[in-house]
Amino acid sequence: MSSIFKECDIRGIYPEEINENLARKIGKAFAFFFEPQSVIVVGGDVRLSTPPLKKALIEGLVVGGLKVIDVGIVPTPLFYFIVETTAASGGLMVTASHNPPQYNGIKLAFGKMPPRPEDIQKIAKLVTEGKNLKRAKGELLATNEDWEKLYFSYLLERLPAPARPLKMVVDCGNGCYSGIATRFLRGFGHQVIELFCDRNGAFPNRSPNPALPQNLQKLSEMVRSHRANLGIAFDGDGDRVVFVDEQGRFVQAEHSMIFFIRNFVPSGSAFVYDLKCSNIVPQELEKKNCHPLPERSGHAYIKRRLIEEGAFMGGEISGHYFFGNLGRDDGLYAAALFSALLSRQETLLSEVLALYPEPHVTPDIRIPRDLEEHLVEKILETISSSEAELITIDGVKALWSDGWAMLRNSVTEPVYTLRFEATSPEHLRELVHRFLFKFPKVEKVVLEKIYST
Fold first, then answer.
1. Half-sphere exposure of 90 (CA within 13 A, CB side)
2. Positions marked catalytic
3. Which ranges carry the Alpha-D-phosphohexomutase C-terminal domain (predicted)?
4. Which residues contact 248 (CB under 8 A, 6 or more apart)?
5. What is the pLDDT of residues 323-341, one digit of tens each?
6. What is the C-alpha separation between 139 and 315, in angstroms, rounded?
7. CB atoms within 10 A of CB 142
8. How far apart are CA 321 and CA 253, in angstroms?
9. Each residue of 173-217: pLDDT tens digit?
10. Confidence band (pLDDT; 50, 70, 90) for 453?
11. Please, what are the domains in the chain?
């Protein structure tokens, strides 16, 4: 059971790892953090297991003495907006984000702040110990607010108007933004062609994870066939977004960040990015006299850093984009802002991106942890600080003059994530060997994954 309690959220396979009984216990444990009768917002994604889990979670919260606003099936950014608008003490969102359909989980909010790993571990401890956390019974509150209308107004107040309408294909992946994103973007002035925009928690058409180019083949085809200016794809719960240019080519997250940096981020401001990003992101920030703020990967870490540092914006290669004027990430806001900025360009998106530096960086390489137990610790014993600059705030990142290598534990799955950046594609194999030469079994798997794509 402990494996479902990750660093940034709670996540596992339904019903083997997460189920109604456990959700009820988590609700009671979460209530322990708040004064009795505090107000908590609960939402959920489109997954087939969400309704029973959400019902059980609410039962636990009410037994724990809290007042609960159930906002139904909503995208995660809209859920956060409701937590902030109601000034609720916190909130729980039943979702497994970009994970496959058999997964589900819970994202946590403490007011405007994300959870810390110690918060989630405290919940895990309370659940495991099975303490009697029952207090004076809470209640389920009724709400008649038109949250979508309020959310749209909130976004529009913070967005620049498009200079011209764009033709775009919007792929909601049958997830939470189905219907909502297309309504907003049409109201924003664009011509929208829908793809997979009916809610379906079985995700029959593509993986909920849009950050992999192979999951967006249909979107690419539709962009080309409709001669659209842009393709947009959301993940299952809507807090991640990725883009496709007018030629149907996947836009790397680093290039999306540079697009925002060049066209939106003011000179001298601070920008948070995850350590897995290519060097082209901090180099771009330095060109603009901005303050690069590297941070460990994970929504909660980057959101907290954005808030604490008062940063203007942040980005993560998974497709999360964070904005200081929101105090968080929002997939729909990022998509609308990207489209508004693109509408001001006199050239096609592919032509804009052709002027950006090309990173010689691998995609995320994911390998099971049981391939080599305690690999992060072993790498740290292998590479000395005299050989490379070592950054250890998120696993280990070794920096040399000719590139870097990174290894970290995934915060959502029992896997390691590796990434490498070399000064040239030809130099990549040597860099992988330099990092993993004492672990030939791991090196072999990593090289196979790199060169099979």
1. 22
2. 11, 97, 320
3. 381-435
4. 219, 220, 221, 223, 224, 231
5. 999 999 999 999 999 999 9
6. 38
7. 7
8. 10
9. 999 999 999 999 999 999 999 999 999 999 999 999 999 999 999
10. low
11. 2-145 (3.40.120.10), 160-353 (3.40.120.10), 365-451 (3.30.310.50)
